[in-house]
Structures are given as C-alpha cells and as structure tokens.
Amino acid sequence: xxxxxxxxxxxxxxxxxxxxxxxxxxxxxxxxxxxxxxxxxxxxxxxxxxxxxxxxxxxxxxxxxxxxxxxxxxxxxxxxxxxxxxxxxxxxxxxxxxxxxxxxxxxxxxxxxxxxxxxxxxxxxxxxxxxxxxxxxxxxxxxxxxxxxxxxxxxxxxxxxxxxxxxxxxxxxxxxxxxxxxxxxxxxxxxxxxxxxxxxxxxxxxxxxxxxxxxxxxxxxxxxxxxxxxxxxxxxxxxxxxxxxxxxxxxxxxxxxxxxxxxxxxxxxxxxxxxxxxxxxxxxxxxxxxxxxxxxxxxxxxxxxxxxxxxxxxxxxxxx
Length: 320
Prior knowledge:
64% of the residues lie in helices and 1% in strands. The protein has helices at 37-41, 45-49, 51-57, 59-71, 79-91, 95-107, 115-127, 131-143, 151-163, 167-179, 187-199, 203-214, 223-235, 239-251, 259-272, 275-284, 290-303, 308-316, and one strand at residues 10-11.
C-alpha cells in the first residue's frame, strides 16, 4: 500500500485549457505498507490493544501500528495516537516512521500542521536510507515549504531518491530536466526517467510521459501512445490523465472519437479534483443542461478559484 499526501505533484504545467503541456512533481509518499495491517497483527491481539508496548519492544511495529490507527485498519481511527507511535519510531531512527510523521505534520493529522517539521523529518528519513524521504524533501525545496527554496538542492535529492530505487524520485528528476529546476533543461534526459518510473508503477510518470508524446517534447508526436499512457494513469486515478484522455476522446485526437466515454472520463477527472475537467464538461453542457453546467463550473472554481475561463463561462450561462 502506498500512502499519498497532497504535497507538490510536479506534473507538466497546464496549458491554457485543453491539456497539461509540461510535467509536474509526484505526490509526497510514505513507505510501502502491508495490504492489511490488521491481518498482519492479528496473531498478537495485544499489539493492537497495547500498541505503545509493542512499539517499545519492536521499532518496526511503531509505523505499522501507527498506520493501523491512522487509517482505522482493525482499530478505531486515532490520528493523535498514530502520530505518537510514528514519533516513537522516528526518535529511534526508524525511517518509515519519520516519513509517516512528516506526512502527519504536512497534513495536520494528529499534530499541528508544520512545514518546517515536515521537511526536517523527510530529511532525517533520507539520511537514514529511505529513498522516498529524499524525494519528499526534494519537493519541499522546490516549493520552499519549511525550508528556503533551493532548486539545485531539490534536484540533488531527486537524483539520490532515483538512484536508490524510488520511482517517484525518478519522475521528479525527469520533471526537473523538463522544467530546468536546478539542472540544465534537457528533454531527452527526462524521457528515460519517466519511462522507468512508469514501468515501476509510478502513474504520474506515465502521465508525464504521455504529455511528452502528445506535445512532441523531446520525441516525435505520438498521440496514440500518449492516449495509452493517459489511460494507464487514469485507471490509477490520476486526475490530469483522465482529463487529457477525455479530451482526446471528445475531439477524436489519437483515438477514435467517442464523446460519451470522453465525457465519462472528464466527469471522473472532475471528481478526482481536476478543475480543467469540471470546466470542460461544464462548457459541453452549457446549452443542453445549464443547471449541470453551472454546478460543474462552480466545482471548477472550488478547486481552482482563479480559473478565469470558468468565471466567464459561469457568468455567461442563462439566468432562471
């Protein structure tokens, strides 16, 4: 299981509206966890009933039990208790606990939101050998969240993460090459990084690789391949990929035109948090269903309040 937070996805930057034109960063992630923490710990009922004692006896149990309480897996959800267990593990230099505690501080779950503590905990995990921690702290340096913004340092962290097997770190290093973040812009260096990340199951890497092929960034334009990559990422609930594939289907770009399926994917993208998808679907229904169009455009503005095109489209709808 991969835990994802809301920090800094380095996806290719948005083009005005049709599709994203350049990649962006992968979400902050936590260390892999077993499919069911409760099942793994069921052999020792006291582990869940007395997690602090189990954590004190076995440092690896701190993040596993903390994750169970954070997610309500086999026990009542208790984010404060989860954070306390993560802290106990991190105090003893267990890197997965440090990553999870960093995510708790990033999201304000069980502890007050604190970007400086988040970055410090990710850095500690990185120093402790957790490649995911390196990628996560790199994101903090890109955005200047909890640390002074430093793109060169961010790129170095992404490279370390990638070199040590973190697919998100490879995808983020690819985006650094696309955008010239701390490294000289080089689209050809980005491609194999995205390809490797995608093959390793990082669906943001698949999305970014799709954008490269759709917009001829370092490669010959290949919309059918872009569509296949978008579909792979959309199946994994990458909102921007659902948006781009939906637009391809509505317009018949790189795939056979299928407006019904395209609208379905735009609806999925909107539900997953793509303001573009909400806006585009609202535009499609502005004539045949103004009420639905208004709801979609308002949703777009909830996600992205400064989306001027959605404001104009909403103002142009007929009034009852």
